[in-house]
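Appendix C reproduces, verbatim, an entry submitted by the partner laboratory led by Prof. M.T., so that reviewers can inspect both the input and the predicted structure.
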Amino acid sequence: MAETKEQFETVIKLCREIYEKKLKDYGSSWRIMRPESITDQILIKAKRIRSLEIKKESKINEGIKPEFIGIVNYGTIGLIQLELGFSDNVDITYEKALELYDKHITETKELMYAKNHDYDEAWRLMRISSYTDLILTKLNRIKEIENNDGKVSVSEGIDANYQDIINYALFGLIKLTCE
């Protein structure tokens, strides 16, 4: 488990560095995004990953690694938006945006550690393409929940699905970066 924690910290650091750089470039412009728009943004990234996995060719000089980073960061933004609600303007500081990112990525990472204990690192036996398919499945679930005004009867809510999406993307990044 020590290796897993180290690998998670490595890829989370990579994602946070990109988040921080984009925050410097654009500020917290994402604050105006409604949850459905964040879900669709993640969907676009996951569909591109799947397309690249199937076609085995990219016409844009970016592979799947930046898309997984984007999924982690948009998933975390989604969790922030669920907590704060969307805004009609940029209403949080750079420092607050980093604080909220760290809070939600830490909670998500801790969830993964608990699940990893129970599942005995089964994710290491999976293919990256399976993470992609699971992310797309979770996105379809989120869209159904959003279409039902956030109501569920027995299923996990949007936040739990975002956390699973983030963790699947982090698994993919670990396989692409650390192994």
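DSSP finds six helices and no strands in the chain. Additional entries are available on request from the coordinating office.
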